[in-house]
Amino acid sequence: MKRSLRELIGYSVRAKDGEEGKVNDFLFDEKSWIIRYVEVDLGNFFKANRVLVPYNFLGEPDWEEKTFKINLSVDNIKRSPNLSFDMPVSRIYERKLADYYGIKYPYWMVDSAAFAGNEVVFYPGVAFRAPRKVIKEEDIDTSLRSFNEIKGYGINATDDKFGHISDLIIDDTDWQILYFVVDTNNLFPWSKKVILPIEVIDKISFSDREARVDMTKEAIKDSPEYNPDDAVNAEFEEVLYDYHGKRK
């Protein structure tokens, strides 16, 4: 099923020993647009305790209760390597985290799911409907991006700049980001939210805080409207892909 990341922020998180926290953010790999980590706050009102949990340690979510189960104890999580959330997550930190959790084959090292035995592994970072070009900033040793970071990035269409990214839509079976939602709030009187497939993104500029989209302003404005109260189901996806002249 397709899920809105915006709606998942604030979900409860329950560790194996019962202690709870909440979801603060999601980090995705910009090369494949797959969620790799969930940022969890296990603190309280007086003191935050934010940690990263690899997404494949998440158990089956309880969508009715808006709760994620984590297949780790709170002690496991709290003893994980310290992380400064003022800086991007570096590959050095990812290696430390992988070593701590006994992850033998981190996602950036694997290109096949054919692993035998009971080792803990990440799913392979195979691109699926990934953007044609994604900017690489040489001064930042990371390919991870934050949902909270990219939310609010401006839209640079082929003929104008307008609106911003307001949400990302994932497939909850594999945590693949499939669509992004554009809020056209400065296109009065046509202001609305529209949904676009990830592959129309030509480039992401993290320094300029914008997404370059290979569509005109008019084409974006006329895209299928997104209503967060309506499911992004197969019928809606057919309409979306018909509009873009693609087959789903």
Tag the structure with descriptive keywords.
single chain, 248 residues, alpha+beta, SH3 type barrels, 2 domains, seven-stranded mixed β-sheet, 15% helix
Could you please describe the fold and organization of this structure?
With 248 residues, this protein is an alpha+beta fold. The protein folds into two domains: 2-121, PRC-barrel domain (SH3 type barrels), CATH 2.30.30.240; 144-243, Roll (SH3 type barrels), CATH 2.30.30.240. The chain is built from six helices and 15 strands. It has helices spanning 5-8, 74-78, 91-100, 147-150, 217-221, 234-243, and strands spanning 2-4, 12-14, 20-29, 34-41, 50-54, 67-69, 103-105, 120-121, 144-146, 154-156, 161-171, 176-183, 193-197, 201-205, 210-213. The strands form three sheets. Strands 1, 10, 11, 12, 13, 14 and 15 form a seven-stranded mixed sheet that branches. Strands 2, 3, 4, 5, 6 and 9 form a six-stranded mixed sheet that branches. It has a two-stranded parallel sheet with strand order 7-8. The chain starts with a strand and ends in a 5-residue tail after the last helix. The model is unreliable at 111-130 and 135-140 (pLDDT under 50).
